[in-house]
Design a protein that fits this description.
264 residues; seven-stranded mixed sheet; five-stranded mixed β-barrel; single chain
């Protein structure tokens, strides 16, 4: 999967056509305001449309904008026009776009991120909390959700020498999702309790053999934005793997979650 900024794509007409094929009136409207350029008047001149793609397939799209459908408010920025095509639904794919926008908003110096919706129980799955009801541009009540943008301090964890057991060795299946095969060893740190009340989970890098136990150094922490626990990343061979190498190694499972990678 790849995230594209629509404004920077070389084949805009092709992606625009795919947006127009969504079975949602708001998606059709997004197509129209992208086609005629009025999106910047409506949503702000720095508005961006992000596309989650796989090859030539458009999986999901949404906007990251100064304004959405709530008038006369100082709240900003907003996620809007959130859509996933039917054939890709059920695996929280939109979460990867929301994760990307969260990181954009953090880089841009914002402390909160907002979304306006008429759906209850959806955005809670992606780390948002109900904020308040507000009137939209049609004078109808909309549910506004907010996500706090935080900076965590893991300086007491990253660099620590730890050891533990492996309960899901390389090559094994996830106990509840048989389509998830572990390409790396996955285990836990003994006597360290995580946010879910169980021992701290770790992704283990530095071997291509299944293990029963391990000892290594924590080189990163994956802070999950829509879960109660973080995941530690441990190196057995003392190699300081790059961000790209880490995310590629853990994507088999983290593709279903929103997360932020912390390093020293």
């Amino acid at each position: 999967m790849q995230i594209k900024d629509f404004s920077k794509t070389s084949n805009k007409e092709s992606w625009l056509k795919k947006i127009s094929e969504s079975d949602w009136s708001a998606g059709k409207f997004l197509y129209e305001i992208l086609r005629d350029g009025s999106i910047y008047d409506l949503c702000g001149e720095k508005s961006k449309v992000f596309l989650l793609t796989e090859g030539n397939d458009l999986i999901s799209f949404c906007t990251y904008a100064e304004r959405d459908d709530i008038p006369d408010t100082d709240l900003t920025p907003w996620i809007g026009f959130v859509y996933t095509f039917p054939s890709f639904r059920g695996k929280r794919r939109i979460g990867k776009l929301l994760e990307h926008i969260y990181l954009c908003a953090k880089k841009d110096g914002y402390k909160n991120l907002y979304v306006s919706t008429n759906q209850k129980g959806l955005y809670e799955n992606f780390g948002f909390k109900f904020f308040q009801e507000m009137k939209d541009i049609h004078k109808e009540m909309s549910l506004v959700y907010k996500m706090d943008i935080e900076t965590k301090d893991y300086s007491d964890i990253i660099g620590r020498k730890v050891k533990g057991k492996v309960d899901r060795p390389l090559g094994s299946c996830h106990p509840h999702h048989k389509d998830i095969i572990y390409p790396i060893n996955y285990g836990y740190v003994e006597n360290v309790i995580a946010g879910d009340g169980a021992e701290q989970d770790v992704y283990i890098l530095g071997t291509d053999e299944p293990l029963e136990s391990w000892e290594g150094k924590v080189i990163a922490v994956l802070h999950r934005l829509n879960d109660v626990e973080d995941k530690w990343v441990v190196s057995l061979d003392d190699k300081n793997y790059s961000d790209e190498e880490i995310m590629a190694a853990v994507s088999f499972q983290e593709q279903y979650f929103m997360s932020e990678l912390y390093r020293m």
